[in-house]
Amino acid sequence: MDSTRHQLPQKKIIRIDELKDMGYSFYRIKKLIEENILKKLTRKSYENLIYEGDESDFYYVNAYVPRGVICLISSAIYWQLTTERSTAIDVAIPRSDRIYTMPEWPQIQLYFYSNMRYKTGIVTIHEDSNQFSIYDPEKTVIDILQYRERLGIEVAKEVLVQYLAKKDRNLNRLYRYAKELGNSKILRTYLEVLL
């Protein structure tokens, strides 16, 4: 299928407002679904079945969890801070958010963060026309230390060791996040053990 024939944006997940802005009527969108060009994911998002670019499960997060931010193990894998493998995408959302539709695949594991923890350290990654929000490496380390009991002490240690070995690490930012989010003591304890 030629995506230029349909003039769809060259991206995996397309929001309804993007289609409407391009002049697509509900009738035409319905036709594209019948022709297996679009697949409805939620009330506001569609999967572009003729997309030919790079694929990532992270692209689906925006469709199901609009304010979701990739976090914890999923973020650590992305930044190459762990050898762990995840069965679900870890996604942080504000405590006040409610999510009503979740996909069977990819699996999404939600974490409800306080406002301060949620807002700190978000970066937006752009890949072609696709994008997703993820926590930067420093915030990922601090969150994993916060959730070390749930994720495993060894995982927390590995993530911190891998982070400290990185040439582009930013220790000032790491300490600032730890202080702002009340994790200074645990960070200090881990650093004393490792160094």
Structure, described:
Helices cover 44% and strands 18% of the residues. It has eleven helices and eight strands. The protein has 195 residues and is α+β, with helices and mostly antiparallel strands. The protein is elongated and about 65 Å long. The model has no long low-confidence stretch (mean pLDDT 94). A three-stranded antiparallel beta sheet has the order 1-3-2. A three-stranded mixed beta sheet has the order 4-5-6. A two-stranded antiparallel sheet has the order 7-8. It comes from Mesotoga prima MesG1.Ag.4.2. This is AbiEi antitoxin C-terminal domain-containing protein.
Quick structural summary:
By secondary structure, the protein is α+β, with helices and mostly antiparallel strands. It has helices at residues 3-6, 16-21, 26-34, 59-64, 72-78, 115-119, 137-146, 148-151, 153-165, 171-180, 184-194; strands spanning 13-15, 38-40, 45-48, 69-70, 89-94, 108-113, 122-127, 130-135.
Keywords:
three-stranded mixed sheet, three-stranded antiparallel sheet, 195 residues, 2 domains
Outline the fold blueprint.
Elements: H1 3-6, E1 13-15, H2 16-21, H3 26-34, E2 38-40, E3 45-48, H4 59-64, E4 69-70, H5 72-78, E5 89-94, E6 108-113, H6 115-119, E7 122-127, E8 130-135, H7 137-146, H8 148-151, H9 153-165, H10 171-180, H11 184-194
Parallel strand pairs: 5-6
Antiparallel strand pairs: 1-3, 2-3, 4-5, 7-8
